[in-house]
């Protein structure tokens, strides 16, 4: 028994496993690659700079803060973790530093010169001409100065709380202009990005030369107006990222999880994860800011002159469409577009809508129609990340007011969307809906809806199942699949999922859906084992698996087993991938590809060869431990042949892509015979061709 245990430990130690944190950083580097790519339109490259920065901010708020907290655990508790957090944190900070160095280089040597080539000039406080100096001075007095509230950093121990993700200027001033002024003084002030309505100031265009400036630099230029008692100034930016929540789902489980949570309960919420600072900051100014904020050396991270590059989402476009992606007008669905009633259409057959290529309007129509249909008796939906002005939520409110039985599962733990979800939960409760705030110990991540209709005395169900959220805004940039169905095999199981939300009993039987944490993991293992069995019999065996993240160690080991048995495994993983492909004797039959492009690949598709009788599932779940064990997720089969063909075709295009596809080491995949396929553009063209010639392909939005 002991020998067997030792053997298992050795096997575990020998299993190649890419560190989850470093894999995420590798994904974010793919975003930076888009900002570097000169084939990407310039203003889109700037947007990718903003995405990279925003992603990194969130990463520090959640993952780095978590690592720092794990380091503070007692050694005995910490020894039970899979990896030493101190070592991981060191590797993370080293890679972050490398990427930020490159990020700065891309901005200075790539973006700024390219802007100048298009007659767009980023001005600083140092290169204003006399007319611009006068204009900025007037703008400062009229617009910026009323928004500023400088805080004196004197020698007392007063504590200054820096708001999360907000940029501040630390100011050192000396050379007093008045006799009563101290020889030197220190102050801080918040850069008023939100109050100003953005981070940038557009200056007057002269001779088709366009000028733009950070409000930071406008403030720097006007410091003598703000502090008239001094003649010399140094002003440097800082920004704090605070811990968003404890996120240790992947590191620990069960009793250890409870133990760690107990040991961390006493810690102050909003623990600072990092203070990003300008390396040119004078030491005495930095010391003064640290003394007043309580931030220590270990939270300091070297940044650059400017922080919060995510504010580049609001960079002015100067009405230059050639510097953006060519528009892809949202397509109609060729069948649903002709139907006056979505419910009546669903009585005939199933439909699959592919976002963002096709319009999100059909699900809005479905919910609005159901809310007003006197024959509809009940409506149910899971809300994970809803838009601020969600038409879906409004339709559910209307349905409740119309006397229908409305059940809404609202996930309050949807990170960074809690506020919007709480708002709509209150509105729904007020309207009379039955609002369920998730399930204890589980996060509800499934995206499903159910409509029950009284048809000639019989209750008939209609279901909506999707890989994406009920969110009008993200449906324009997230690539997802959504199924409209009245197939009793599926609607019966969807009804069972909502019963689970109500009674929380896990004894539910699902004949067709894969539901985490009830039967999803077991089903996926069964499907992989079947391919292994077929390969060992000498039968064709393969899998094509598309997901956002692959982190679960058990599923990775199962894929290694499949590879060793001769199963051909093709993985499309947009983000984290802890599996190491192409290792002889372990994973030589596994290929990993990742696509980062114009839209965010968000759909999950699981395709199993099954000895020629292919099985295809579309799902909300990745192969992460949290998705399979600690979230309510739903995977659904496609039974209608034409819908299977659509998804199969889209996946095939992604496997052929040699324009935006990277391998696991972030090198671009360049086959010997170039295909010149760009999957997202080819998908758009494919779906456009499905629209009959006598119909206008673009929807009216």
UniProtKB/TrEMBL annotation:
Record PTM text: An intermediate of this reaction is the autophosphorylated ppk in which a phosphate is covalently linked to a histidine residue through a N-P bond.
Active site, UniProt feature: 445
Positions that bind Mg(2+): 385, 415
Superkingdom of origin: Bacteria
Record-annotated Polyphosphate kinase N-terminal domain positions: 17-122
Pfam families assigned: PP_kinase, PP_kinase_C, PP_kinase_C_1, PP_kinase_N
InterPro entries per UniProt: PP_kinase, PP_kinase_C_1, PP_kinase_middle, PP_kinase_middle_dom_sf, PPK_C_dom2, PPK_N_dom, PPK_N_dom_sf
GO CC annotation: polyphosphate kinase complex
Record GO biological process: polyphosphate biosynthetic process
Reaction it catalyzes: [phosphate](n) + ATP = [phosphate](n+1) + ADP
Domain Polyphosphate kinase C-terminal: 342-503, 513-668
Gene3D superfamilies to which the protein is assigned, alphabetical: Endonuclease Chain A, Polyphosphate kinase middle domain, Polyphosphate kinase N-terminal domain
Family indicated by similarity: Belongs to the polyphosphate kinase 1 (PPK1) family.
PANTHER family recorded: POLYPHOSPHATE KINASE
Protein name: Polyphosphate kinase
Species: Pontibacter mangrovi
Gene: ppk1
């Amino acid at each position: 028994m002991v020998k067997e245990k030792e053997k298992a430990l050795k096997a575990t130690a020998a299993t190649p496993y890419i560190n989850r944190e470093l894999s995420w950083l590798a994904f974010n580097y793919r975003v930076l690659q888009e900002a570097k790519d000169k084939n990407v339109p310039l203003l889109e490259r700037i947007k990718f700079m903003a995405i990279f920065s925003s992603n990194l901010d969130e990463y520090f708020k959640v993952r780095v803060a978590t690592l720092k907290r794990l380091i503070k655990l007692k050694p005995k508790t910490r020894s039970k973790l899979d990896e030493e957090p101190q070592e991981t944190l060191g590797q993370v900070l080293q890679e972050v530093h490398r990427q930020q160095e490159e990020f700065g280089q891309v901005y200075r040597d790539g973006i700024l010169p390219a802007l100048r080539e298009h007659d767009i000039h980023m001005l600083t406080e140092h290169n204003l001409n006399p007319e611009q100096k006068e204009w900025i001075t007037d703008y400062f007095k009229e617009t910026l100065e009323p928004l500023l509230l400088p805080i004196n950093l004197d020698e007392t121990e007063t504590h200054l709380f820096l708001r999360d993700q907000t940029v501040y200027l630390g100011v050192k001033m000396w050379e007093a202009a008045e006799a009563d002024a101290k020889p030197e003084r220190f102050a801080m002030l918040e850069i008023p990005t939100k109050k100003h309505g953005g981070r940038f100031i557009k200056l007057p265009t002269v001779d088709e030369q366009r000028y733009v400036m950070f409000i930071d630099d406008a403030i720097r230029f006007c410091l003598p107006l703000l502090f008239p008692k001094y003649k010399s100034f140094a002003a440097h930016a800082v920004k704090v990222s605070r811990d968003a929540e404890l996120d240790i789902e992947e590191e620990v489980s069960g009793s250890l999880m409870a133990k760690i949570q107990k040991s961390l309960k006493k810690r102050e919420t909003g623990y600072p994860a990092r203070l990003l600072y300008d390396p040119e900051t004078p030491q005495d100014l930095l010391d003064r800011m640290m003394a007043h904020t309580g931030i220590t050396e270990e939270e300091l991270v070297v940044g650059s002159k400017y922080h919060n590059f995510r504010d580049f989402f609001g960079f002015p476009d100067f009405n230059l469409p050639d510097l953006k992606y060519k528009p892809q007008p949202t397509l109609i669905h060729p069948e649903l577009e002709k139907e006056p009633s979505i419910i009546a259409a669903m009585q005939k057959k199933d439909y699959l809508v592919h976002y963002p290529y096709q319009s999100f309007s059909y699900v809005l129509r479905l919910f609005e129609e159901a809310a007003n249909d006197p024959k509809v008796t009940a409506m149910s939906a899971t809300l994970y990340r809803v838009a601020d002005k969600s038409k879906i939520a409004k339709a559910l409110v209307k349905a409740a007011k119309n006397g229908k039985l409305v059940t809404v599962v609202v996930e309050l733990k949807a990170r960074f969307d809690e506020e919007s979800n709480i708002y709509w939960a209150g509105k729904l409760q007020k309207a009379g809906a039955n609002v369920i705030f998730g399930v204890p110990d589980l996060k509800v991540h499934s995206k499903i809806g159910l409509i029950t209709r009284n048809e000639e005395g019989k209750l008939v169900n209609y279901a909506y199942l999707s890989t994406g959220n009920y969110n009008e805004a993200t449906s324009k940039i997230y690539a997802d699949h959504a199924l409209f169905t009245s197939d009793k095999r599926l609607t019966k199981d969807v009804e069972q999922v909502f019963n689970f939300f109500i009674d929380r009993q896990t004894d539910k039987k699902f004949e067709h859906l894969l539901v985490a944490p009830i039967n999803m993991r077991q089903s996926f293992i069964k499907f992989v084992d079947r391919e292994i069995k077929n390969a060992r019999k000498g039968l064709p065996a393969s899998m094509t698996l598309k997901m956002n993240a692959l982190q679960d160690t058990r599923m990775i080991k199962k894929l290694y087993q499949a590879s060793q048995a001769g199963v051909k495994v093709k993985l499309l993983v947009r983000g984290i991938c802890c599996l190491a492909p192409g290792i002889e004797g372990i994973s030589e039959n596994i290929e990993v590809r990742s696509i980062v492009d114009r839209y965010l690949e968000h759909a999950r598709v699981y395709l199993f060869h099954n000895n020629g009788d292919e099985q295809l599932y579309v799902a909300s779940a990745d192969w992460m431990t949290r998705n399979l064990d600690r979230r309510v997720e739903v995977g659904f089969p496609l039974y209608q042949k034409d819908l299977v063909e659509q998804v199969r075709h889209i996946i095939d295009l992604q496997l052929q892509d040699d324009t935006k596809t990277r391998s696991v080491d972030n090198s671009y995949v360049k086959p010997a015979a170039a295909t010149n396929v760009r999957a997202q553009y080819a998908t758009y063209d494919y779906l456009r061709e499905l629209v009959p010639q006598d119909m206008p392909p673009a929807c009216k939005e």
